Every structure is written in structure tokens, then in C-alpha cells.
Amino acid sequence: MYRQLDVRKDKVFYISVPMEASLMGRPGPSQPMGALHLYDTKKREDKVLLQGIGGYGLDKEGGKLIYRSGETIGIIEPTPGKKVGDGKLDTASMQVLSDPKEEWKEILREAWRLERDFYWDPEMGGADWAAIGKRYEALLPWVAHRSDLNYIIGEMIAELNTSHTYVGGGDVPDRKRVGVGMLGVDFEPDGGFYRIKKIYAGENWEDDWRSPLTEPGLKVKEGNYLIAVEGQLARADREAYAYFQGLAQRVVTLKINDKPGEQGAWEIGVKTIGSEANLRYLNWIENNRRKVAEATGGRVGYMHVPDTSVGGVMMFDKYFAAQQGKDGLIIDERFNHGGWSPDFYTEKLGRRLLLALSPREGKEFVPQQAFFGPKIMIVNEQAGSGGDLFPYYFKKEKIGPLVGTRTWGGLIGMGGFPPTLDGGMVTAPGWAWWEPNDKGSGEWVVENHGVDPDYKVEQRPDLVLQGHDPQLEKAIELAADGLKKMPAPLHRPPYPVKAMRAAAPEKVKAVAAADK
Question: What letter does residue 178 receive in the DSSP assignment?
């Protein structure tokens, strides 16, 4: 991926970033991976100036360059052979005198102007934007903290009644966070210690999906007891993870036993993780997939699509390809938090049977990656933006029914905007979706309403607490019904006759005569 293109005289500057570092939703290493390039248009040469940076800036003539790499900021001449650390500035001793009250006044004005200049509707939806600005400026004397200002800005831009109006950041005090080491397990107290009730499976070939206790060579299993962490007894009179404070992403020594006691315990070394979210998410997906397979005799697949960006594409393709050969598919897009326009999903889901192929040996098959049986989508109120557009396309293309609850209704999208004076962020929705009609005009869609399901099913808390998923169960019911309506299995037609049979010589003579 290439970004931050800049030009000075006959030189072009840009940053290249490996794709694995730019994947949305996939955290990369703490060290920036950008490489700053200089392309000389006269010599037609491209050289790397600096490796491992996150951003840069140039002076007017291009003779000096400021860069940032993590916490390091430096100023250098833009010549090849430089490395991070060259020209490092002593930022620790830098001070700046500021007047927060004056800054807050300017920032509120900046936020107001961003909406005025970038909001998708120049008429501001009929709102008297000048009057609204004055109304919220009147509250500035009572602002005592940057978070107060964010609250006021949030209320001001909420007057537009539009999705994707966000505010955040700014000059707020740093908060020290303690990284708690996690093991990807469920604990339960038993006999004064913690018993390992469940170990969550991971995908250990990817670090973000690694399950620590499932790594090769570790002598630990479900039902074992955690006895000690880094030499400290892990008694059940405290929260289990109280013993793991400050141990995130570190190799720790644990004592494990098959009974709740110290005698006979053994030691293992394991590298913890900083979050179990991915492991528990993967467990939820796999449990749903198994439920669908068991209920349909393995004929219907299941996938969850978390967004319409890079992470969602990876999850979609993984489960789409891995379940080929099944008749139907349940697409779960609940909690889909959006991204881009997801026609790349519906193009695959909407594929129709074109031709079948018959080899000399083996069964007939269709040489397409597709599901030709029932396809059901599950939606809920926490799916929005691209998560609104996905079911809208699914419904418009008549791929299958929607099950669940109406989606969020946020389809006026946003782009990038300059930061505020103190580095804060305010967004202005810049484009809206509408459906054309045969007259060339049309109507605005989805925003402030969402996409309605064909079968409304609420997630009743009492049923969920009993282990049910009413929305998934309804989707399974519809998929099973759809299986009954599928056409007959493929069977090849009779082989064509392309040569005259030796048993009918009179036909051969007739053909020969006709040829003459």
C-alpha cells in the first residue's frame, strides 16, 4: 500500500506499507513498518530514504524532512542511507504555553466549520446551522475539561440527525493501563484454587488468534488446576486474573496440577495474550457452525461476517471456500460494523448455476465456487453502515430472506478530515446512498431507518440465558425448508452418438452416397 505522496521540484516522496501492516482490524507490531521513498524524476531512480516510520513532513524547498517513528521524532536531510534515530529531537524537554479556554473556543468553531463545509447536504438538512453554532458556543464558559468540550460538540453535530457524526480525542491526560496476561480459558473455583473449566481453541498459525494453552508440548488440559503464577500461589479467594497483572504478552511460569493442591504440581512456561476477544469470538462462530451442520445433516454451512472491510473479507472468503459442496448457507451479519460497499459479497452469494461438468471417471460436479441451495441472512440492530448495505443488497438481489431485527440505519458515509487544533477528531458525513428509478431520479434509502427483516425475530433474554439463539434457530428452520424445495441431484444426460454404428451398414452406404 502506498500513501502520503508529496512533491518538491523534481522529487517525489511517498511511504510504502506492507499489506499485512495495513489490514483494518488486524493490529500490527508496535514498530511502524512504513518505508519512505524518494523518486528522482530526472534520474528515474527510486531509493528508500528511511525504513520504519509512521509519517513525515517536508519544508517548502524539500531540503529538510521531519519524521516520526513510534515515540521518536527527528529532522534530517532527505538523502539515502538515513536510519531511525538520526536527527532525533529531545521532545521530553519541549514545553508549550497554552490557554485551554481559548483553544476550546477555537476547536468548537473548527468542528462547526467542518460540518458546514463537508456535510453531504449543502442545505444542512434544513437546519439553521448558524443559529445552532451560537447556541452551543453559549455553553463554553461552563467547559472545564476537554471531555466536556467533546460532549458539547457531540450534541451540536447530533442536531443533524445523521449517522457517522463522531467526535473524540484531543488534548486529554494520558491514562496508564496495566496489561493483564490472559490464557484463553474459563476458570471456576474448586477446593481453594482455580480449576480450568474450558480451554478455548485458537488458530495458532496467526499470533492474533493464538490460544496459549493449546501450543505444542504444554502439559495442561481442561480439568487441571492453576496452582501458582510466577511463584505466587493462585488462591481462589481473589479474582483469577489478579495474579496476571502486568503480564500481558510475556512468558510466565505457571504451576499446574490435576488436583487442588501444591503437592505433585508441575511447572510450564507459556506466553500470555493481551485479549481473549478473538478466541471467544472464534468459539461463538464454531459453535454456531456446528449447530447448523447438526440440524441440517451437514447440508447447510454457516459464516459470520464481522465487517465489510479487510477483516470481514478474510472471514468471508475463509468460510465461503471451506464449506464448498454444501447445498445452502446461513450468513450471519449481526454486529457487522461496516467498512466499504459490500457488493463483493453479494456477487459471490448471488451466483447461479451455469453448467455442470462430467469427467470420464467420478461424479458430475459444478466448476463454480457457489452455494445453489437456500441462503438465509441473519441481521440485528447492531449491524450498521456497510452492515446496513450488505442486507440491503442481499434483499435487492433476491438472494434469500432476512431474519432478525431491523438494522442500525446509518448509511450516510464519511471520509477523512483534518484534525482539530489539539489533535482531536470530528467527522462530517460526506455522501448518501439513493436508489435510482426509471425516470433517472429516485429516493434516499436506509438512513435513519435501516433494513427490515423478512422474518422479525427478537433475541429474547430468557431464551438466550437458556442457551438458545432464536434468530439462528429461525434461520436454520428456513434453510431446512429450503432444502426440501431444491431441484433433483445432478445426473449426466445420455452420451451423444457421434459415429455410425458398424451394425447398420446400410446407413453407412447412404451417408457415403450423399457425400458423393
Answer: P
Residue type, 358: S
Cell of 453: 427483516
pTM above 0.90, yes or no: no
**Furthest CA-CA distance within the chain:** 109
Asked if residue 497 is part of any domain, the answer here is no
Q: How far apart are CA 439 and CA 437, in angstroms?
A: 5
Cell of 91: 521532545
- Share the mean pLDDT of the chain: 92
| Same structural domain, 339 and 451 | yes
Cell of 167: 467526535
Residues 232-245 as b/e (b if ≥16 CB within 10 A, e otherwise) read eebebeeebbebbe
CA–CA distance, 445 with 412 (Å, rounded to integer): 10
Q: Please check whether residue 234 lies inside any domain of the structure.
A: yes
Q: Using CA atoms in the order 363, 365, 369, 371, what is the torsion angle rounded to 10 degrees? A: -100
- Residue 243 and residue 327 share a domain: no
Tens-digit pLDDT profile for residues 488-514: 888 899 999 988 655 556 665 665 566
Q: Of 76, 94, 74, which Cα lies nearest the Cα of 38?
A: 76
- Domain enclosing residue 194, as ranges: 185-273
Instruction: Tell me whether residue 138 is in a domain.
Output: no
